[in-house]
Batch of 2 targets.
Target 1
Amino acid sequence: MKDDFRRTDELMDVNYSISQKRSLMNEKFQNKQYGEAVNYARSMLEATLKYVYHEITDKEAEISEGRRGYISLKKLSDSLIDKLAPLISHRDILVDIKDNVIKIICGIGEVRNKGAASHGSRTRNIEPQREETLYLLGLAEDTSNFLLKLLYTRTHIEEPNIVGGILDIDKLTNTNQKNIDDEKINCQDGDFHYQVKYEMFNVDYWIQNEIIIQVRISLNKKYYDLKDSGESIDELIDSFLPEDVRGQKKRNGERSYSAYSCRHDKNYDIKLEDLDNTIEIYIDGIEPL
């Protein structure tokens, strides 16, 4: 078994840059490059702060809060936690939460600055050891997840029930389509597979860390065919994609498409299969890191 700092990737996969930094952080830890692992932990936190800030304000933090295109980590975290205040249940403890989050972020930055993986120094660098690194990586990931979950579960960042969004079962079963049956299956470690059956098609959702990572739509050929139902199928596919990529799909082959969301810095793959009784559509936002 690899020496992962945690057995499973617990970070919400909603933005490529954040997930990439997390992957590199874990890779450096596996290779016992602890200073570099802490370096990427800090980068992951910074990427998270900038992503959440942009989603809330639709502005780049470096431009709106920084000076000459630069913003310190402390100022970035301070500004963001202020903007997240309405999303936190107990506002009376916001100050403590805010101060602690900032201390964690800046503390990880200080460890990173003292390591050989960061700046050059006249005197010798002191690298963190394995136990210290485990603690710091855990704090970094937990803080990132805290900010992302505030954003995704307590705001309307994105429509529910799309790839890259959260699953809202109430809205899932209250649509203009007649819902015949729904079932939660294959539940494991908080991740699960959810299936909804409608009269004209079925939809399967795969959930990981509270986010829908893949959808399979099974169209009944009594109502759909690839030749005459192209527009309807296209609209259906778009309804499972983020708003900024709808109508922006790129054809890669006869039954293969891709789409890129600049807002989330994520790529989406769409594939169609023409079977005997159904047309299977697969939409996923899983990218190799």
Target 2
Amino acid sequence: MHAHRRTPHAHDAPAVGPRALRLRYAAIGSFMAFTWIGEGNAPAWEHALRTLVILLILPPLLLRTNRRLTQELYETTRPTRVIAQLVTARIVIIAAAFGTSALVGHLLDPHTGRSPVVPAAGLVLLLLSIPVQVRRAHRTRADRSHPSTRPTLSAPRLIVAKLALIIAALLAQLLLGAYVDNATYVVAAAIAITATVLGPAVHGWLLVAQAPAPEREPVGDAA
């Protein structure tokens, strides 16, 4: 058994490096592009609507759950249980968002056959990310700064930023649809590139400070 770290002040919180930030937004852009492609040859407005459904579900639920469980992970003496809760919650929320999006697509156009390949691939990728999530959770717990001292993403600001990107993608697909056969893939690539390039530039605006957590006595890890 060894002593847990102290609860530090806000100036102890580490900043995300430029390279890590670029990789993070490249992953977000790829995720959004994957979502856009997953809707197949549906009309552009349906692409936008289904992506909007995912957008309105994921940030509010995922960010709040992640913040609460990350703070609990930092303080608990039983990290394995909290890490399992954290990973499970993420998978359930993401699956629920995509499931709701698929349901919306079915209700809008119940007669269109949709390939299960893309949703299945998305589920496989999500499950393959579990080891990465577990490793990052352990790194978070090992950090000297309490999660409540670190700035966090604002769900409303994130929704506004992604909504602007979705509207731009919708307009682009409407314009390209008359001239390009595979406008969906062109727009998806543009989404990924835009998020990768502009994401780090607006990252600071997306962050908000959290209310500081009350000081706690050091917590010992379970043997």
